[in-house]
Design goal:
Layout lengths: L2 E9 L3 H12 L4 E4 L11 E4 L2 E4 L4 E2 L4 H9 L4 E3 L5 E5 L5 E4 L8 H21 L10 H5 L3 H8 L3 H16 L8 H10 L3 H4 L2 H4 L2 E3 L4 H11 L3 E2 L4 E7 L2 E6 L3 E10 L10 E3 L4 H8 L1 E3 L2 E8 L3 H4 L2 E7 L6 E4 L8 E8 H7 L4 H16 L8 E6 L12 E3 L3 H5 L10 E3 L12 H21 L1
Cofactor: FAD
Keywords: Oxidoreductase
Pfam family, one: Amino_oxidase
Length: 454
Amino acid sequence: MPVITRDVVIVGAGPSGLTAATELRKAGLTVAVLEARDRVGGRTWTGDIDGAMIEIGGQWLSPHHTAALELVAELGLETFSRYREGESVFLDADGGRHQFTGDVFPAPEATAAEIDRLLALLDGLAAEVGAEEPWTHPHARELDSIPFSIWLERQSDDEYARETVAFYVSGAMLTKPAHTFSALQALQMAAAQGSFTALATDTFMLDRRVIGGMQQVSQRLAAQLGDDVHLNAPVRTVRWSDAGVTVFAEGDLEVHAGRMVLAVPPNLYSAIRFDPPLPRRRHQMYQHMSFGFVVKVHAVYPTPFWREKGLSGTGFSDNDFVSEVYDNTNHGMDNGALVGFIAHEQADAVFDLEPEDRRKTVLDCLVRYLGPEAANPVVYYESDWGAEEWTRGAYGVSFDLGGLTRYGHDHRAPLGPIHFACSDLAGHGFQHVDGAVRMGRRAAKAIATQHSLV
């Protein structure tokens, strides 16, 4: 059995774990990174599908993602802007198709004004709640005990305005129905992105991509770490005490370390046997954190035909299967690529279909957005992270009703020698690569500080 001794062992070779390992190395500590998959990158994955480069996982950077943008630049990577010239398309509940410009969906004047009023109200509350410690807000318990959908009903009697505002969090971010998470969770999601208005602005949230793919961030970090990154090594047992940890992974790998960074989403902690078991409160906490469900669909065409029609490739719907679609053409390519998203209950319905029926249903929706040319892609692919053994959902983990105020103040706290780092635990950058980088740095700083005091 290979036995390794290091200062710190990191479980998970996504952006968070690899950032932590890199920062610890800079602090003069030795590391070992254990990854269950046969690749690095975690929920970022740039794949070759039938000759097309597909961003299977996370891909976008926004202006407020300063930690991730800084790391991208440090690694010598470049970014490019998403194509968004021309008109966007909105499919309404009655089957109507509307072309529009700007960030707000077409709506009657009174409803548009109500959407603006709700966004302004939410912006103010999100600023008060903040991204890092929303559970400390004076009204946190009240906001955390009410579903976001019910909270919106108490603020407005305009159903269309409520559904539009709910979509920005429910369909576009947490990928859960708005009755399953609290108003406080919605406000924390918005605060983590700067404001609710920023969350509702696709040209802000989906701003830039990394040329060559987001997975390169992890690949370049891993290359710097060299043989200290071990793939195909799912961790099965962790023995821990105040003196340190012993980690046992598949492949008969055993690592002894003074500290550990658990850099995987909380829903995967249960795949590891802890000896002694984690405290009761920790087990309870993780039972109140869950992934949403979203399917990312990719369609590649010989040309970006929508641009010739004066369309940006951006589209939204409040009731069709594909609720969002965007131009996802790679940098410098002559072909055209679209990416669409099918979230929560709509994703449930689509996956009740057989694969060929599901493909036809998705492409029929793209036709409604962009025209008959969308029916015949040269490459079609579905990113189903719910089926990934080492993820089991998308985009990220969030608390159920009451969870933030009940457990939030504990969910980032170290447990003896064990530290926790992933985008799901972040404040700023929550559920994004930026949050993963921030949490990796945070864990590394805490461990390096402890080490210097010993």
